[in-house]
Prior knowledge:
Layout: H1 5-34, H2 38-64, H3 86-113, H4 117-141
Amino acid sequence: MEISENVKKLIQTQITKEYASSLMYTGFANWCEIKALKGFGTFFKKHAEEELMHAQKFITYLNDRGKFYPPATIEPPFTGFAGKGCVDFVIASLNQEQEVTKSIYEIYKAAESDGDYMSKEFLAWFVNEQKEEENVFGDLLA
Ligand code: FEO
């Protein structure tokens, strides 16, 4: 059965968001490294890599369903590093993850309402992943 057109488009948009998250975390990692905050640098670098894995996971899914992800322009969700530090980065990270959770929910709801149960099953992994991601950053601010 064909993937729902709406779900396909939302996943394509989501892939670009995952790359944008990766770019944001890469910026945080680099800033921390040059400020001799190596531990935070490693933390954010690992997270940047995870976002690339998420993007690839979505791309592989679309490929499996015979659909293409046309590379898109990526806008970093965080700019303006002057005067900012780790706490600002963690707050921005939590905000970003909460936005990503909303967009994953949106795709999940579209899959459900279009009767695209293959996509719904696939997306369940991301729903769980978002719980972990929000907790990682939320716990740092607790
Ligand atoms: Fe891919 Fe951190 O959400």
